[in-house]
């Protein structure tokens, strides 16, 4: 596989900058809204804990 040429690298950089400026307002509004939102750690940690327990169960079943 060939390495990308300089024109491809420049085009990818320009597209990345355009995407950044296109979504900049949305990022700012999302960050402001998330700082004012109530914190819900149990709603995050409970599903993660269940997934970890399920993976441990699967590993134990294979042995």
How would the blueprint of this fold be written?
Layout: H1 6-36, H2 41-62
Describe the structure.
This protein has one domain (6-62). Helices cover 84% and strands 0% of the residues. It is built from two helices and no strands. It is flat and about 50 Å long. The model has no long low-confidence stretch (mean pLDDT 89).
Features:
63 residues; 2 helices; flat
Secondary-structure content class: mainly alpha
Element pattern in H and E: HH
Give the N-terminus to C-terminus distance in angstroms. 41 Å
Strand content: under 5%
Q: Could you tell me the radius of gyration in angstroms?
A: 22 Å
Largest beta-sheet characterization: none
Helix content: over 70%
Average of per-residue pLDDT values: 89
- The coarse overall form would be flat
Number of domains: 1
How many beta-strand elements? Answer: 0
Number of helix segments?
2
Runs in which pLDDT lies below 50 for 5 or more consecutive residues are none
């Amino acid at each position: 596989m060939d390495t990308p040429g300089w024109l491809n690298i420049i085009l990818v950089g320009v597209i990345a900058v355009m995407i950044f400026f296109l979504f900049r307002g949305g990022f700012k509004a999302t960050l402001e809204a998330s700082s004012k939102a109530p914190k819900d750690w149990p709603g995050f940690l409970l599903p993660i804990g269940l997934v970890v327990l399920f993976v441990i169960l699967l590993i134990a079943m294979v042995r």
